Here is the input.
Amino acid sequence: MKGKIFVVGIGPGSAEHLTQRARTALYEADVIVGYKTYVNLIKCIVGGKEIVSTGMTEEVERCKAAIELAENGKKVAVISSGDAGIYGMAGLIYELVANKGTVPDLRTSPRSVVESGLSPTLTVHDIEIIPGVSALNAAAAVLGAPLMHDFAAISLSDLLTPWEVIQKRIESAAMADFVICIYNPKSSGRVEQIRIARDLISRHRKPDTPVGIVKNAMRDGQKVLLTTLSDMLNHDIDMLTTIIIGNSTTYMVDSVMVTPRGYKIGEE
Ligand code: SAH
Here is the structure.
């Protein structure tokens, strides 16, 4: 009998921001698979369950382990912080399962399938993706309402994406006046990218553009800072931080960051 894979977005960290469906899936699962730090965030919920946890850069091994467990009949919860479909594990699980078993044949119709001839036990239909509150939602909420208009999410991690592509996206988003949410802004080995990103954005936005820097949003150690594009690099930024850079209309009022949607107020 084959099992099932839940790909669970556990939200930003605090138990209150875990969705009800994520919670029931974690209860339903026989095994929890995830990066150590994230497993620790939900330890109180998963109690004595079997846990497969690995380091940050072992995503492929982690997902393969989850698929193997599910093929052996286990219900497996693969966890990502925030939303599993946003720089998380959801896509990788699909890619691995699709290459192993039955995959939709997109050239004909979404309903017809092709067999890859490998191990057809687990299919994409045995995967359930459970959404979570992403870092951008959590960061926006603690800053005020900065995402009221069109925005772009950009990760500065160049492990899987060429830096030239990332730079092009940053400048295009800045040029098009999107509010910009920056994920993975800085790590110990990657310190220059955030400076380059800031400089690219500065070509199209004023120095006093509001910027929100949020570390550990909605979990222990939360730090919220409102600053400006010209000043943002003078503050603590690391891998636990999400940065939201306002568009040309974003403003700060009473220590909150607001991007107007365009409603007319104060007019009859
Ligand atoms: N799937 C996750 C993102 C994983 S990428 C999500 O949807 O949120 C990892 C990056 O997410 C971090 O480098 C950081 O930029 C951001 N991040 C994740 N959790 C965060 C939190 N609680 N507070 C601030 N930023 C966070």
Summary: The chain is about 30% helix and 25% strand. Residues 35 and 57 are 9 Å apart (CA to CA). The mean pLDDT is 91. Helices lie at 20-28, 36-41, 43-46, 59-71, 90-100, 135-143, 163-175, 193-202.
